[in-house]
Amino acid sequence: MHRPTFVPVPPFDLVVFGATGDLSQRKLFPSLLHRFLDGQIPPNARIIGAARTSMDTDAFRQIVHDNQAKFAPGVCIDEAKCSEFLKHVHYVTLDVMAPASQWAALKQALADGAGNARIFYLATAPNLFVPIAQRLGEAKLASPTSRIVLEKPIGRDLASAREINDGVGAVFDEQRIFRIDHYLGKETVQNLLVLRFSNMLVEPIWSRQTIDHVQITVAEEIGVEGRADYYDKSGALRDMVQNHIMQLLCLTALEAPNSMDADAIRTEKIKVLSALRHFDARDVAAKTVRGQYRAGLVGGKPAPSYAEEIGRAS
Fold this sequence. Notes:
Blueprint: E1 12-17, H1 22-37, E2 46-51, H2 57-71, H3 79-86, E3 89-93, H4 104-111, E4 117-122, H5 129-138, E5 147-151, H6 158-169, E6 177-180, H7 187-198, H8 228-253, H9 262-275, H10 281-287, E7 296-298, E8 301-303, H11 306-310
Parallel strand pairs: 1-2, 1-4, 2-3, 4-5, 5-6
Antiparallel strand pairs: 7-8
Helix pairs in contact: 1-2, 5-6, 8-9
């Protein structure tokens, strides 16, 4: 059920890089629609999609509209409200690897929103994070109050993660960088800390003395669908374990933080990660099981196998 909130939001310009991609259309724009219906998108706020595909704003709005029906069915019961939301949506054709001198269209679009808070949302592959941040700096689009949002994964390994953090940090101050794992926005995940530390029946027995073992199951109902190129290169370990499941592990095992603010929770998460037993190549054969999903039924509907979805054996 839709639950309105009343937290005021100042006028903003949200630039979504990778706006035509799966993450944006499946997750981000439906979430923004919810925020609009909750009254958290003010009248002069704008959502500016940016991607390489050449199209105008009307064509992009149609894509967003069609995908809302696909990925957020039942939300847009009032078509008039959905049409009002789409008035906030704009589009700029942009090759993010082009020199900053060729970012004139985005620069002009943002100039029209002078005074708005400015947020850059990078729903792209991680290898584009640093180039985009650099070009935002070179084009003078990253003001001291601008914010940048990075969707997981932050790199492929430790070296690339450090490279991304250093590269983005050269343009944006750390307090202006937001690293996002959308699993933390799931209602069940958000309720974990409440269950652990506010439930007087659960809190006293949540310990190694009373819990035999923990199993974390991430049961997804969707396959790779349109993400075959990304997923076959990334794999389940990088796409699911290193971020989503590790976050769930931290929330399951952390000690009670001093407060519920972000810094205190992060401190306790780091303690959990630091305490984990190191996993090396010799452990892979003995302690892991790998597999691929086969064709079957999901929700009573036929679902293709992984190999069928990517078009080849892998």
